[in-house]
Amino acid sequence: MEKLINIARGLLESGKVKTIIGYVEGPTGRIRAAFIRKPEECSKLLINQNCIQNLAVYLLKPEIREFGRPAVIANIATQRSVLQLAQECQIADGEIDVIGFYAGNTIVEFKNFTEIEQRLKEVKLELTSDDAKLIEKINAMDTKQKWQFWVDEFSRCIKCYACRSSCPMCYCSRCLCDCNQPQILSAPSHLLGNLEWHITRAMHLAGRCVACGDCGRACPVGIPLHILTMKIAEDVLKNFGKRAGTTLVKEYALSSFKNDDREDFIK
Amino acid sequence: MMNLTEENIYKPYKMRIEKITEEAPGIRTFRLVFADASDAEKFSFKTGQFGLYSVFGVGESTFCIASAPTRKGYIECTFRQAGLVTGELARREEGDIIGFRGPYGNVFPIDEWRGKNLVFIAGGIALPPLRSVICNVLDLRENYKNITIIYGARTPNDLVYKQELAEWEKISNVKLVTTVDPGGQTPEWKGEVGFVPAVLEKTNPSCENTIALVCGPPIMIKLTLPVLEKLGFSQDNIYTTLENRMKCGVGKCGRCNVGKIFVCKDGPVFKLSDLNKMPQEY
Amino acid sequence: MSSETKILKKSSVQKLIEILASANIRLMAPQKKGAALIFAETKSASEISYDHIQTDLSAKSVLFPQTEEILSYSYAGRDVNMKEREAESFPELVLFGARPCESSAIGLLNAVFTWDTQDVFFKTRLAKTTVITIGCKKFDEYCFCTSVGCSPADKRFSDIFMTPVSDEEFYVESLTKKGDDLIKRAAAVFTMANKTIDVEKELAKVPVLFDIDALNKKLPDLFNRVEIWKEQSLRCLGCGACAYACPACACFDIQDESGKEGGKRLRCWDSCGFSTFTLHTSGHNPRHIQAERWRQRVMHKFSYFKDRLKSIACVGCGRCSRNCPVDMNLSEHLKSLMEA
């Protein structure tokens, strides 16, 4: 922890960075995001196995950016989000500082995004045992059972949009669900509308989701919707050979066309 | 089959569009009559009030009732095509049925203003709420002293209620001053050229025993109020209307509030002295 | 109302469900659905959860559902035929196992829906629901009911109040005619209580965390201190989890859904935390930053509602804070406002 606090304090004191986006402990023991701007407050920063929120969600928020250059304390998922946001031209290499941390309290001050890319080649994003069990359970289902599973889960959705709000990739300033010309997604929560929303969102995240799991954790009715986007990410890897958040090369799995693509209907 | 025990406050009246007037580019007036005669008999409203007008299948939109309560048998609304519902409304034709819920909101206290002078100051699409008051007081002309109307728009084409303006021009005991923005005038334009606050200052209405009603885009109001102050108007004698996004119109959905004031219940008519007590969150 | 107190055994609840079912009355009770604890129609007593401190979503969905049809219409050429709901489309319900905080929140919903004009949908549902509240024997660090005028023994808006006196038995007090009617209808499952119990003694004591009257008086002066609201709301994501989980939040949207033949007008939940909540078609938004929306949430619940409808619009159940993905802990924020 000492190392992290010193790095953070140094960055603020030198004036290079104006805000540290990191983790602190709240009064109930829950870990929460904090935006440290004073060097003396850096002592509140911590990292441990409960620092799982993907802090990249704050990198594009005007309220945070108006403080000035941020440094983000990044777990693996956050690092992958940084790469994916850079790939999508939402942040530029050099615009932010990234302080990565790994199991065993390893801390890495990245000089640029390429270093993150290099480092992530060696690191695997691991599933929680609950998620792994659920994925195994779903994989064992046939199509009809899978559909019924998701219908049962999404019937509980109350359209609070906590999933969208917690996702760093859902940065559209005018989300489809906020548009009424045309009204593509319905506002009330009935099963059809809930399925439309979640399937649309899952498709919008195909090839972009870094599998941080924040959407499922944010859901107040415990729908494991991160599993849906995670499984689609696996499908994208299998079919297109690409995984989000692993490269800075600006090439979307689902919208980059190359001459040697195996699908030839576009020719 | 039992009905609900009481009236459904969200159920609109059915209104037939009797007449559509194209006021200006993108701005229309609908003259609406109640599809059900018994609704027409029961209905009444006071000037200043508004309603929620709906296209069945699409949604509702909030506009003031732009006609005067003294004109019986119909109500009118004027709107600009801007979003989903107004876009659909703009596609309606004479004879179509739309919905109307109302009247909602508070009123301009025109009874209190008997014996006073009235100055109406409006800009652009904001004339409709004042047109209701103007027609109302003109129908009771003997109750009021001097009536001055100052109305401006970007260009002559953007002026709404061109028909009414022509009528008001002809009334001898009404002073009408119309203006267009500098650069907006056409060769045929015979009125003033200048922004409304400047024209107000030039017109120099007396503040003595006078009520001022101001409606316009936020920037116009911002620049008009200091002129009124300069002319000697007190904050208690200046009235305006606020608008906010609305859904229920009856103080329940929780979105139109400015502080603890609901624009749909405690407004939309406000005295400047009241507005200044409210948080500046509108 | 009846001065006779009763005992209800957990083991009799199945019989209660059956008696009610034979009269077409549904029991809504806390149940685990997927990973969430919510109020749902219960046909088997074994599904009922008793051991929780709070459900994830509150019981408000029983009286104020997420989606409520307020009108339907069918097209007839250029005309339209409107159709109203029938009284039968609202079921007779027993809300079983609400906590005292969410039962007293019914009073807050009632204040919104019946002040000035009457919302017939809420009123009909309330009239057709008998509320059975179970008092709290435990609480957690998110509960602050006693700081906002509520408590684990709050009986407001309950028709029957039940106090757990053992793992298997409830001490039952009927508070209204509806409560009496239910006990009469299901007399077979209620036995006489052989002694009176001091309910307050059996139930949890939640410490008071702040002075709500002092906070209420202070808030208007804090309105313009934008830096406070900004600081508090920095991590807020602007989702609707707090408002939707809250038993007292009643803000709603009205949406039309239609096809070729006709459609419906629906009243559905909305949240002042959403960025589009107050957005005008012109693009102007009176609350265009999250800090202003956070301020609205606090001011509405702890200042404006008191001014207009004479109550603090919060019952301290803590659901907002438990459900918040980023730990916006309401009682912590309120305490910090006291110190501002």
Describe this structure in words.
The complex is a heterotrimer of chains A (267), B (282) and C (340). Chain A has 267 residues and is an alpha/beta fold. Chain A is built from ten helices and five strands. The termini of chain A are far apart. In chain A, 41% of the residues are buried. The mean pLDDT of chain A is 93. In chain B, the strands form three sheets. A seven-stranded mixed β-sheet of chain B has the order 10-9-8-7-11-12-15, sandwiched between helices. In chain B, strand 13 (257-258) and strand 14 (261-262) form a beta hairpin. The radius of gyration of chain B is 19 Å and the shape is globular. The model of chain B has no long low-confidence stretch (mean pLDDT 95). Chain C is 32% helix and 22% strand. In chain C, helix 7 (212-222) crosses helix 10 (290-309) and helix 8 crosses helix 10 (290-309). In chain C, 51% of the residues are buried. At the B-C interface, strand 13 of B face strand 4, strand 5, helix 4, strand 11 and strand 12 of C.
Structural class, judged by helices and strands of chain C?
alpha+beta
First-to-last CA distance of chain B: 46 Å
List how many beta strands of chain B DSSP finds: 15
Largest interface: B-C, 48 and 57 residues
Strand order of the largest sheet of chain B: 10-9-8-7-11-12-15
Strand content of chain C: 15-25%
The radius of gyration over CA of chain C amounts to 21 Å
Low-pLDDT segments of chain C: none
**End-to-end CA span of chain C:** 46 Å
- Which geometry of chain C do the CA atoms define? globular
Stretches with pLDDT under 50, minimum 5 residues of chain B: none
Shape of chain B: globular
Question: N-to-C SSE series of chain B?
Answer: EEHEEEHEEHEHEEHEHEEEEH
Secondary structure tally, helices of chain B: 7
Oligomeric composition of the shown chains: heterotrimer
Main pleated-sheet profile of chain B = 7 strands, mixed
Helix percentage range of chain B: 10-25%
Can you write the helix and strand succession of chain C as a string?
Answer: EHEEHEEEHHEEEHEHHHHEEHHH
Average predicted local confidence, pLDDT of chain B: 95
Provide a compact summary of the structure:
The complex is a heterotrimer of chains A (267), B (282) and C (340). By secondary structure, chain B is an alpha/beta fold. In chain B, 21% of the residues lie in helices and 30% in strands.
